[in-house]
Specification:
The protein has 203 residues and is of the alpha+beta class. It has one domain. It has an 8-stranded antiparallel β-sheet, sandwiched between helices. It is globular and about 45 Å long.
């Protein structure tokens, strides 16, 4: 009986080890696929530096703030919550109900030299409520993905697991421009990020 007990226990350990190896191998394969995609796109030498509202990669933090001030003075954007974002109401589609209106928050990403190397985004339905299934982030993410593809044409989004992420993300790379739609960690908000890979290859 004792021998049988250890045999079963050993089988369990062996089975667990196999599963862990498969998970690591799968993750490694996805990272390799991501690295290959980055190398392929960067090798094209195509530069996409346009972000939104005339903002571009490589601008200074001062230029970002100046542009936001101009947009604010025209009533196009306003200061977002907690002074951490700039708020913009996306134009409503024809026949779209008020509850489906989308608010976009954005803010530049800057390196130690105060150069803009990317931009963070958050999207949410204005009419969000916990009990309305159609307004949850897992539904909104489809609209966000479609909008980003329209605003930044090129390749499609693919799902990959990156080096520093434990969950899969939607990734779209066109030349030096990488767009990530992050894993959903909030019922209301969809988070996205645009990076210039000339600055962010290690992130």
């Amino acid at each position: 009986m004792t021998v049988l007990y250890f045999t079963k226990k050993g089988a369990i350990y062996k089975y667990t080890a196999i599963l862990m190896f498969m998970a690591v191998a799968s993750c490694s394969s996805e990272v390799t696929k991501y690295d290959s995609l980055v190398k392929e796109e960067m090798a094209k030498g195509t530069i996409h530096d346009s972000l939104l509202f005339g903002m571009r990669f490589g601008q200074t933090k001062k230029e970002f703030f100046d542009r936001c001030w101009q947009l604010n003075s025209k009533g196009i954007v306003k200061q977002g919550p907690n002074n951490q974002f700039v708020e913009y109401k996306l134009p409503k589609k024809k026949g779209q109900g008020l509850q489906y209106a989308i608010t976009m928050l954005f803010y530049g990403i800057f390196n130690d030299s105060n150069t803009m190397t990317g931009m963070n985004f958050q999207f949410s339905y204005d009419g969000w409520s916990l009990w309305n299934e159609k307004l949850q982030s897992h539904e909104l993410i489809h609209s966000v993905k479609d909008s980003l593809k329209k605003w930044y044409p090129g390749n499609d989004f693919i799902q990959l697991r990156m080096k520093k992420d434990t969950s899969e993300v939607y990734v779209k790379i066109d030349g030096n421009r990488r767009i990530l739609i992050k894993p959903l960690d909030d019922n209301r908000i969809v988070k996205a990020r645009i990076d210039d890979l000339r600055y962010s290859l290690d992130k």
